[in-house]
From TrEMBL:
GO terms for cellular component: ATP-binding cassette (ABC) transporter complex, substrate-binding subunit-containing. InterPro entries: SBP. One of its GO terms (molecular function) is maltose binding. Keywords: Signal, Transport. The gene is msmE2. PROSITE patterns: PROKAR_LIPOPROTEIN. Belongs to the bacterial solute-binding protein 1 family. It comes from the Bacteria. This is Multiple sugar-binding protein. GO terms for biological process: maltodextrin transmembrane transport; maltose transport. Residues 1-25 form the signal peptide.
Amino acid sequence: MPYRRPARAGALLGLAVLLAACAPAQTDTSGAGADKREGTLRVWLFSEVDQEPKEQVVGDAVAEFEAAHDGVTVDVQYIPVDSRAERFQGAFNDPSSAPDVAEYGNTDLAGYVEAGGFADISEELAGWDAYSGISDDVAATAQVGNGTYGVPWFLGVRALFYRTDVFADLGIDTPQTLQEVVEAGQTVREEKPDMLGLSSGGAYTYGFLPFVWAHGGAIAEQEGDSYTAAIDSAESKAGLELYSEVLSPQNCPPQTCAQMTGNESVQNFIAGEAAMTIGGNFNMNAVEDSDVAEDTAVVPLPGTEPGSVAPAFAGGNNLGVLSGTDHRTLSVEFVKLLAGKKYQQRMYEAMGNLPTLSGVQSDVAAADEDVAPFIETLDAGTRFVPVTGAWASIDAEGVLPTMVQRVASGDASVETAAGDAAASLDEAFSGE
């Protein structure tokens, strides 16, 4: 979820998203395939720990939309993230209780599409100029097969956080490659045994995947409509071998780090117990509020060659239209408004949500140096998980973290652990 940042008065002034000067013709048809242009538009958005700023921005968008559409009322409900699976399943099974528009996590989409829950809005987006400002790899997070089932609303990507005071004290230069990241961690651990080098856990899937991707590896390769595991490729295993050096006594000891999640990895850094971590833009507020804030710098996580950037996972949330809606046109128009430039900027200012539109990204990077490393990471290209409903079970069963943890604990070699993980992935992909 996005990190919280107070609104900045006068910052990031954006161009308004212009609605059509005239409201569409009003109809009130009903029945299958209806596309009513009046009535109540129901919207589900995720609730947040501190959602007042989000509500304010969304409220302004609702007021703008209702003013431009006579006879239309927008009803926004905020639903808990933790119960989203049950809520969406209920909505898919009973369209009368479903929203017209909903925010959803992009890794959930493939399963939702398989359930027939979201509408393909490719045609409507093809004529929307703002959509061309979303990069292909980010746009892909809302696509399944040949369909586009929403608009990427905001992203979360990760970069390298490091302690400038520790590096200066030990004479360590900012790492230019992943190998240098590992070596810097080893130097810290040797000189400061009470401190972790790079705090990154065995259960931190999106912490270790950049090591795989940077070496040219992949979780799986797509073949038509199906996937085949590639985590056991030579390239993937090279990345896993390097990451195994992170989870070692010389860097982040397995007894401490093998079971650590992403949040726990970052917390070690915030607590002053680590010289580096792989953190997201959504962790910035916590770092800024910590005792290490003044001694922290952030750079893109480097790749295998100097000047390169390790591909990051493009996590985030999208806005989509439910397939059972009888307000399709209004639903798409509301998605375009809330996901457009004006309100992406507003949501960044209010909640720190990293925008998906390239023009907005440029504006926020120019206005806020803290976000620049994350925008640079986005610009370098991101990766995503296999777009299949099988991913939910793969993730729930911890196939990839288990692979890494077996290596860290000494229970298996990279060769064996990757091979076993590949077999589990292929089993899940085939539906066995």
